[in-house]
Design goal:
The chain is of the alpha/beta class. It has two domains: 8-157, Lysozyme-like; 176-229, no CATH class. Helices cover 33% and strands 12% of the residues. A six-stranded mixed sheet has the order 1-5-4-7-3-8. Strands 2-6 form a two-stranded antiparallel ribbon. A hairpin with a 5-residue loop joins strand 4 and strand 5.
């Protein structure tokens, strides 16, 4: 299918049929350089990994798997009770060295290419802003991408993801147990509690990621839940 937002096709054999309707978008970084290395891996049948799109640092949008097919990008993951994240999501890989090869801010041209593509995906599949997530959100025990430098606020300005909420510091949860139940209710897998908290911080409080539940983290989660219950997260 022709898409004016796609610059070229690089078909991957690594896909199968979906078992769930599309309800989320997962953003990744490749942690490989140059980008051709990442493309080769996502097109290698032996690797058994892929994504629907890859966006280069120069802003080139490359399609690897059609959106109606199940790409293999999320691995073992969970979001809001959905454990087959691959079936329910569209995966977008961002050409980037990642934490292993020299973590740095994301290229402006890359984000400028991501914005219209993401807007079209959300509109086509009626995906709520709250379900535009990072790989670390759906796999907190294993992944840290796209990481603390990803410009979520840039996307939020276009209503393509949720903005970081303004909060009043307080202690809205009686104890850590209540906090973790709320974190799970919001969508995170809390099997590894400290890593779940770190993933939450990476997305919602990136200036300090220590895996520790503190008053600010509690207040942010409480506000996110309030906003969701008020229907303010579409």
């Amino acid at each position: 299918m022709t898409d004016p937002l796609v610059h070229r096709e690089c078909p991957s054999p690594n896909w199968n049929e979906r078992k769930l309707p599309i309800s989320m978008v997962v953003l990744h970084y490749t942690e490989m350089k140059p980008v051709d290395t990442a493309l080769e891996r996502m097109c290698d049948p032996a690797a058994e990994v892929s994504a629907h799109y890859c966006i280069t640092e120069e802003g080139e949008v490359i399609r690897l798997v059609p959106e109606d097919k199940r790409a293999w990008h999320a691995g073992a993951s969970c979001w809001r009770g959905v454990r087959d994240v691959n079936s329910a999501s569209i995966g977008i890989e961002l050409d980037h060295p990642g934490h292993a090869l020299g973590y740095r801010p994301f290229a402006e041209a890359q984000v400028e290419a991501l914005v219209p593509l993401l807007a079209r995906i959300l509109r086509t599949h009626d995906i709520p802003r709250a379900n535009v997530v990072g790989h670390s959100d759906v796999a907190p025990a294993r992944k840290v991408d796209p990481g603390e430098l990803f410009p979520w606020e840039w996307l939020a300005e276009y209503r393509l993801c949720l903005p970081r909420p303004g909060v009043q510091l307080g202690d809205p949860f009686d104890n850590d147990g209540a906090f973790f139940l709320a974190l799970e209710r919001y969508g995170y897998d809390i099997t590894d509690p400290a890593k779940a908290v770190a993933a939450f911080q990476r997305r919602w409080r990136p200036h300090r990621i220590d895996g520790v539940v503190d008053g600010e983290v509690r207040a942010i989660l409480f506000q996110l839940l309030l906003d969701r219950d008020r229907g303010a997260t579409r």
